[in-house]
Amino acid sequence: MNKEAEKVKVLIVGSGPAGYTAAIYASRAGLSPILYTGGQPGGQLTITNDVENYPGYPDGVMGPQMMEDFRKQAERFGTDVRYGMVTSVDFSQRPHKVIVDDKDEIIADTVIISTGASAKWLGLESETRLNGKGVSACAVCDGFFFRKQTVAIVGAGDTACEEASYLANICDKVYMLIRKDEMRASQIMQKRVTSNPKIEILWNTETEEILGEEEVTGVRIKNNKSGEVRDLDVNGFFVAIGHQPNTQIFQDFIDMNEAGYIITQPGSTKTNIEGVFACGDAQDHVYRQAVTAAGTGCMSALDAERFLAEQELS
After folding, report:
1. Does 1 score more than 70 pLDDT?
2. Domain match, 129 and 219 both
3. Neighbouring C-beta atoms of residue 147, cutoff 10 Å
4. Percentage of residues in the chain with pLDDT exceeding 70?
5. Catalytic residues
6. Are 44 and 132 in contact (CB under 8 A)?
7. Quick one: 83 exposed, middle or buried, by C-beta within 10 A (0-12, 13-18, 19+)?
8. What is the residue range of 268's domain?
9. Count of domains observed in the chain
10. Do the domain assignments include residue 264?
11. Which residues form the FAD/NAD(P)-binding domain (predicted)?
């Protein structure tokens, strides 16, 4: 540990659209925020090639470039952006104590949690290699690139059904690969996909390999009952088996739902701990878009500013 803890008014944990937007607002308010980037500086967008649905980029933008733009804007107004990982917290009393990289102690009047969420993957080598080259965990983000083409999607829950339906509006054909002979999705969502002529459901189906060198050209599947292995010609491969919010280090203090998403008070980013706010995908399991994350990032900075003013700490 450092001999003397560093004191800060606003500490931002995480560096995706939510964290950087919070930093822009907090720094413009003269609060001198410190932002720690976490293990994946820029968040999920750094593994996204083309972003075409964020306002202000009429020709689209590469995900890593977009996050670089956000970072530069935050720094221009005075945010201290640091590379490091928050490894533990103590929110039992105010001001809040945060440990970075298991050694550096920071005492923060307010903490903004913007640690995001990580998509769950199948664990295939080809899935990693072709990520952003036809493999995606977000149909709403990337489905547009496969209009009038054939795609496959893995998953059996409501999200997978929603994304399959979304893809069916854009693509010529959607294969839905389901590991068992039943879905976890609600009945209304199951009916939506089973009645869509563009969606073909393949039951008892495992993904063996995603095919292609520089881009996805197909997927090798296996029927886990008959043992039959065959290749499907697809241009895109979507994984919809869930997300894991990156919130584990806060679980001893912050209220969360059963999936680990932070619970915030309706209409705000306030958590159950005074002076601790949450924004972005760490607390949003519904929309999970860059633009909504940025919106809650703005809210969290304004909430933190008001809290400091009320406490006469600003």
Report:
1. no
2. yes
3. 11
4. 98
5. 138, 141-142
6. no
7. exposed
8. 6-118+244-310
9. 2
10. yes
11. 9-297
